[in-house]
Amino acid sequence: MTPNPPLNIRGFQVYKGFLDRAAQESLVDQIRQVASDAPFFAPVTPSGKQMSVKMTSAGQLGWVTDRSGYRYQAHHPKGGTWPEIPESILSIWRAVAACDREPVSCLVNFYGEAARMGMHQDKDEGDFRWPVVSVSLGDDALFRMGTTTRGGKTESLWLTSGDVVVMGGDARLSYHGIDRIRYQSCSLLPKGGRINLTLRVVDQGERPQQPSSP
Ligand code: MD6
Ligand code: FE
User: Fold this and answer.
1) Which residue has the higher pLDDT, 204 or 82?
2) Which of 122, 176, 202 to mutate to test ligand 1, by most ligand atoms within 8 A of the CB atom?
């Protein structure tokens, strides 16, 4: 894959239309397989609030949250290891991440009609030298990108199916979130909704596993 140059918005590199429809469909098949091995679950924040997305993971480590905190762990909340990250997903990372590490975690978030993702930093990975790569599939989503300060200036962009975003360098710890989706704006998922994949290198062991502040 030789991508067209990305848009650069506040240091977020946005590859519009990175995946064609056939590639998106084959990714959805792969994700269905991941979800049949590691079913979607309804995550709860440390404060006890149910998140509006449904979540699962692939890779050596999956990101989970419950009353005891946010963390990466090697097993699904209901037990068992996570399935391997499909090769087609790894190849997206290799094409855009510009680093010699492979991701160890692929978080899969499903957004139904009313789902959103509050402004947050991705900071549970233990090492921020590596980028986070995100893949959007299905319905359009309004992506808000800020600075490393909560409440700082933001800029928003509609992500559509097949878009890939790389959050690295100075933007690695920038706040970002999904304000809303345009439910059933895309025919990729027959019942509507949106899937977001985030690929990450996680370096544990450099600090104890402990809940990070929300
Ligand atoms: C989403 N994305 O697109 C939420 N995180 O559903 C993220 O939280 C995200 O897009 C890290 C890097 C890129 C992202
Ligand atoms: Fe994020």
Assistant:
1) 82
2) 176
Task: Give the ligand 1 atom nearest the CA of 196.
Answer: 6
Overall pTM > 0.70: yes
CA of 84 to the centre of ligand 2 (A): 21
pLDDT per residue as tens digits for the range 93-138: 999 999 999 999 999 999 999 999 999 999 999 999 999 999 999 9
Rounded (to 5) percent helix, strand, coil in the chain: 15, 35, 50
- What distance in Å separates the CA atoms of residue 30 and residue 89, rounded to the nearest whole number? 9
Determine the distance separating the centroid of ligand 1 and the alpha carbon of 109, expressed in angstroms.
Answer: 9
**What does residue 177 show for φ and ψ, rounded to 5 degrees?**
-170, 175
Residues of the chain with pLDDT > 90, as a percent, come to: 93
Beta-strand (E) ranges in 47-167?
A: 54-59, 62-66, 69-73, 105-111, 117-120, 132-138, 140-145, 155-159, 164-167
Cβ proximity of 203 and 125 under 8 Å: yes
Eight-class DSSP state of 177: E
| Nearest protein Cα to ligand 1, atom 6 | 196
Could you tell me which CATH class the domain 7-200 is placed in?
mainly beta
- C-alpha–C-alpha distance, residues 18 and 162, integer Å: 6
